[in-house]
Design brief:
Helix content is 76%, strand content 1%. By secondary structure, it is an all-alpha fold. The chain has a single domain, classed as Orthogonal Bundle (ABC transporter involved in vitamin B12 uptake, BtuC). Helix 4 runs antiparallel to helix 11, helix 6 runs antiparallel to helix 11 and helix 9 packs parallel to helix 10. The protein is globular and about 60 Å long. The two termini are 25 Å apart.
Length: 333
């Protein structure tokens, strides 16, 4: 058995993709097969093998994927960001209110959404990197601030982005295309850009080094504060981008929500191989993890269960992934 596993790990495509990521891809196919078998049994002939279900899962995976890409940078530094979900909703609320009430151009509202996310990321990064506040406390505080700001700006009213006007609904085609998964292509492009930043640039290497040993990096003469802050700025910016993909798929945004999406984005990172201890991250793994989370949600709903079951499974997956990461680190040490 060990010899067969060793040979499998040495296969060229496994070495290129990575053993852990190959396992994750296998889990996607396993989950799809499992839902395909169980759905007709539990729903009296209903089928899971449906193109619309696949597209629905992808629509859910897009904004989870963008948030996951952003928080991957933060976790790589050894921090955490629980504000990304409410920041995404706050960005969607403010930009959507500017679009529907102030009649600003759509392209400007998209920039406003990204800008709101970047501002929240900058604030969080400043307090964590320059004021040395714990990232856990800082992100929880910003989570409440984002909820409040979004509610105040929209006067506690929900915002519905226009979906029928061709002049303003083209953004939906970037996300909810009925023919091609255009949103997945855009997510893949951003994942490539994030991979280049994290693995091929000085900033990304410093972020990983900060997560591994912050004090050693500081003693070597590197200003760790600006690189750590950059991780939070990227996280907030990508949360603002995720807002566009959320409203593209679901149109209506309500104030005071977004908490559950934090857990799903972080779960996607942890499942994908990003270590909660910092110093190790996988952009491709995060994207695959987001697809697993989305497929799990679609499968649970298809079988007739409530979304509460997904919360339970997501929590258990995070516990298992973190436990496996800790055990792996102990073995290496």
């Amino acid at each position: 058995m060990k010899e067969a596993l060793r040979k499998f790990k040495n296969l060229r495509f496994v070495r290129v993709i990575g053993f852990n990521r190959v396992i994750l891809i296998a889990i996607i196919f396993l989950m799809y097969g499992l839902f395909t078998l169980l759905t007709p049994l539990l729903r009296n002939g209903s089928t899971f093998v449906n193109y619309n279900r696949v597209m629905s899962a992808l629509n859910y995976a897009y904004f989870i994927g963008f948030m996951g890409l952003g928080v991957t940078f933060v976790i790589a530094t050894g921090g955490i960001d629980f504000s990304i979900g409410p920041v995404m909703f706050c960005s969607a609320l403010i930009s959507g209110y500017c679009l529907t009430k102030f009649n600003l151009p759509l392209w400007l509202c998209i920039f406003i959404s990204v800008g709101v996310g970047a501002v929240f990321g900058s604030i969080g990064g400043y307090f964590v990197a320059f004021r040395r506040l714990p990232s856990f406390i800082t992100s929880l505080a910003l989570m409440q601030v984002a909820k409040g700001v979004g509610s105040i700006f929209t006067k506690t009213q929900s915002v519905t982005w226009p979906s029928n006007d061709p002049a303003t609904s083209w953004y939906r085609d970037l996300v909810k295309s009925s023919n091609l998964p255009v949103g997945f292509v855009i997510l893949a492009v951003f994942a490539i850009l994030c991979s280049i930043i994290l693995y091929r640039t000085t900033a990304g290497r410093y972020m990983l080094c900060i997560g591994s040993n912050r004090e050693a990096v500081r003693l070597s003469g590197v200003d760790t504060r600006r690189w750590e802050m950059l991780a939070y700025v990227l996280s907030g910016t990508l949360a603002g981008i995720a807002a566009i993909f959320y409203v593209g798929a679901y149109t209506t945004v309500q104030p005071g929500l977004g908490d559950t999406f934090n857990n799903e984005a972080i779960a996607a990172c942890v499942m994908g191989g990003t270590s909660m201890a910092g110093g190790s991250a996988s952009i491709l793994g995060t994207v695959i993890g987001a697809i697993i989370v989305a497929l799990m949600q679609e499968g649970i709903l298809a079988m007739g269960f409530t979304i509460s079951y997904q919360y339970v499974l997501t929590g258990l997956i995070v516990l298992c992934a973190v436990t496996a990461d800790i055990m792996s680190r102990k073995r290496r040490n």
